[in-house]
Amino acid sequence: MLDFFTIFSKGGIVLWCFQGAGVSESFTGPVNALIRSVILQERGGNNSFTHEALSLKYKLDNEFELIFVVGFQKILTLTYVDKFIDDVQLHFRDRYKNELEQKGALKLLNNTFDFEDRFKKLLREAEVTSKARSPVPMRSFKESEKSQKTVKSMIETKGGDKSKEQGGKKNKNTKKEAPAVEPPKGDQGKTPPFGQKDVLNGNQGLTPEEIMQKKREDFFRKRKMGPTEKPSKSPKPQKPKEKVNRVWENAGSSSKNLDYSNKNGENSSGEDQKNLEAQFDPEMQVSSMKGDLLSVDYESSEEEEMEEEEEEVVDSKTSVKKSGGFGGMFGMLKGLVGSKSLSREDMEPVLEKMKDHLIAKNVAADISSQLCESVAKKLEGKVMGTFTTVASTVKQALQDSLVQILQPKRRVDILRDVMDAQSQRRPFVITFCGVNGVGKSTNLAKISYWLIENGFSVLIAACDTFRAGAVEQLRTHQRRLNSLHPPEKHGGRPVVQLYEKGYGKDAAGIAMEAIAYARNQTFDVVLVDTAGRMQDNAPLMTALAKLIAVNMPDLVLFVGEALVGNEAVDQLVKFNQALADHSMSDKPRLIDGIVLTKFDTIDDKVGAAISMTYITGQPIVFVGTGQTYNDLRSLNARAVVGALMKA
Amino acid sequence: MTENPLEPYIESLRRQLEEQDPVVLVGVIVALAVVVITCVFLKYFLTSKTVRSAVLLVGLCDSGKTLLFIRLLSGKFKRTQTSITDSSAPYKAKNDRSCTWTLIDLPGHDSLRSQYLEKFKSAARAIVFVVDSAIFQKEVRDVAEFLYMLLTDPVVCRITPTLLVICNKQDVAMAKSAKLIQQQLEKELNTLRVTRSAALSAQDGSVGGSVYLGKKGKDFEFSQLPMKVEFLECSARGSKGKDGDADIESLEKSLAKL
């Protein structure tokens, strides 16, 4: 079933490989693609990868610096693969422990690893166990509970609660009715059961509300399940059969109780919803809100519920740490000397702290967590040297992976490429795209100044036909640049020219005409300025994709500001998605580079650089550090990572 | 006159020394001797040059560095994948005279190569730059950029290791010869000198690579460099594929001459 299985060292030497029967292609290509896209781009969080028709799963062994990769056809769903890789890894390590522990690369070359028989045995065992665990067959109708109920019981009658409880179509309903029917401490038996039944009916009818409430109830239960010690709940109290009016905690019996003018007006809505959940939560005592208010973690409006969940988690962890303080100190000393291998639990607190540190430095939240996950995978099982703490190892690994992310994956040399295009007698076309107000026109002017200084002639295409004053802005820049570099010094013709067709026209058409004009007049570079657009605006994204697909520019630059936080992820993903969706060819032009602007406004919160390069995998080509023509820089990866890791 | 102020001091010193217990005197003299010897040792160790005994295998991705590494060390053929860390092993050349080097194979992937170069370049005695001759035409700009980065690195310029450019994959029919590769690289580096020096400075103000390759005013040639540069041809895979030996004699000979 498997197409191939390889074991190779991190240095690239294949120790052992297995190719399935009937498979003729070499697996070097897919495995190299796996290495390049997953491991090197720090997306090591999930351990599977698809490449054309193959699905690849891998496992890192950090103690002996090995990688185990298995590949099988994408259309097959093999359930035993994960466990199989783990088994193979354990067996291989046990068998070749002595050889692998030697230092240097010679150990890999001089030893032959005959793993064939063991491997075949393991494979057979795995296949057999997977077949043994056949999927559970569906129950026939006779076996289900429904066939055992009487028809009469399923008829809904007005005023009868019992029937509803037994004949509930979904289990959800029973759970929801039970708390609703809980005896409130009030004496509101007066209101007729109709009222409540109406409410219940209403609840059953509206499915989205049901779902929402169930979710809220689960969430609230999760929150409640935190550090507080809840006394084990006695089984649900026997409810009286008649319906009792639901009592809202804050409703009270008279209008005086409804007067919230003393309390903070903001919290009232939050508490209302909390009480809604309290009603639905079967395990919560109704009187638990009595008495002193609970500590700050529990009291807040709904938006802050997620933050509180995190706080609670942190609380529980710190309490655990304090209790194990003395033992922990001794353990730390023990950990300093001698070699011990890193485990997940050791790294967890440090990684959490690093993740929070990255988020504080303006790296997008899910990227921080993916990065930390990938670093954890890289370090799991690694043997630390003497006198190195867990924190320092993790920090060093994180620093290395950040530098790796910021290093460009391909050659970035615009001047060289422009020279190339010059020799081919065609203009080099650069397109700038981005959301509103990030600095596209300003940085376009800066880049044209740089190109002019290096002796190229530039044509600016004003394809922003929407924003008022866009064309005039570019014209002003053109005049300024021409006065700084007068035509007399550059062979009698102006170095910068503006190609514009006013407002309201089709941007893609203007761009095409501008490129043709540049070719005729032998301009070296064409800079295409587009209108800023929000990534959610579908028609505008389609227009941008059409512009790029039709004109096939040499470089598509996404302009993003360094102040952006989590939004960067959304912007880049949606821009790339739009470019990929609306292009007709099978190799769509995506974003080729990033221009990071307004870099002077952030001191060391440089996380946006990481977010953007991580999402697209493309390098940061320019960095804008101000509003004058000289404020254009290139990215220094080490300096940025230094600023990022600084405490 | 100068003796008069000193004499009373000398006199008092002599008297004090005679009064002292001889054991204490001996202890003081031993302590002083130890301090002097430590100073001498420290001076000796600190000022001794760091021994450079590493031969680095660098090059673009998929140029055949790891296979070359395996062939040089053991002569066998093994399948290889993209390296993500370095591999090092001691290497002794074929003839008896030469000493043992440490052969280090660095990953060629763009995001990793600068990190590993930083680590190992100061210990480099020679740099073996592996070039894929079969697809050289497509990659010429990337090869030249890497070579430029290497040649303008301040540490490399200071220690001037021997540079051996190996044109690998000569077993493929379309492989270019070493002479052609040398000419193309010279032309490319000539252009790169101009574009790189005009490149933007980094955002914290540091300007990369202010070393100018070769002589100004003249076209760039490898002979203008301060270090010894050699172009060799070889084939790590060998003409017979898996079973045969690799044609790396020229490389081995050059390594032996180091």
Automatic annotation (TrEMBL), chain A:
GO CC terms of this entry: signal recognition particle receptor complex
Q: Where do Basic and acidic residues bias regions lie?
A: 158-188, 211-232
Matching Pfam families:
SRP-alpha_N (PF04086), SRP54 (PF00448), SRP54_N (PF02881)
SRP54-type proteins GTP-binding domain residues are 619-632
Location within or outside the cell: Endoplasmic reticulum membrane
- Composition bias (Polar residues) maps to 251-270
Question: Which stretches does the entry tag as region Disordered?
Answer: 132-273, 300-320
Instruction: Give me the stretches of Acidic residues compositional bias.
Output: 300-313
Q: Name one GO biological process term.
A: SRP-dependent cotranslational protein targeting to membrane
Could you tell me the membrane topology recorded for this protein? Peripheral membrane protein
Q: Tell me the InterPro entries matching this sequence.
A: AAA+_ATPase, Longin-like_dom_sf, P-loop_NTPase, Sig_recog_particle_rcpt_asu_N, Signal_recog_particl_SRP54_hlx, SRP/SRP_N, SRP54_GTPase_dom, SRP54_N_sf
Q: Which PROSITE patterns match?
A: SRP54
Q: Per its record, what are the GO molecular function terms?
A: GTP binding; GTPase activity; signal recognition particle binding
Mind listing the UniProt keywords for this protein, alphabetically?
Endoplasmic reticulum, GTP-binding, Membrane, Nucleotide-binding, Receptor
Of which family is this protein a member? Belongs to the GTP-binding SRP family.
Supply the name of the protein: SRP receptor subunit alpha
Automatic annotation (TrEMBL), chain B:
Q: Where are the transmembrane segments?
A: 23-45
Q: Which GO terms describe its cellular component?
A: endoplasmic reticulum membrane
Asked whether the keyword Transmembrane helix is assigned, the reply is yes
Membrane association type: Single-pass membrane protein
Family from the record: Belongs to the SRP receptor beta subunit family.
Task: State the organism named in the record.
Answer: Xiphophorus maculatus (Southern platyfish)
Protein's name in the database: Signal recognition particle receptor subunit beta
The places in or outside the cell where this protein is found are: Endoplasmic reticulum membrane
Q: Which Pfam families match?
A: SRPRB
Statement: the UniProt record of this protein carries the keyword Transmembrane: yes
InterPro entries from the UniProt entry: P-loop_NTPase, Small_GTPase_ARF, SRP_receptor_beta_su
Q: Which residues form a coiled coil?
A: none
Q: What is its main location?
A: endoplasmic reticulum
Q: What is the lineage of its organism?
A: Eukaryota, Metazoa, Chordata, Craniata, Vertebrata
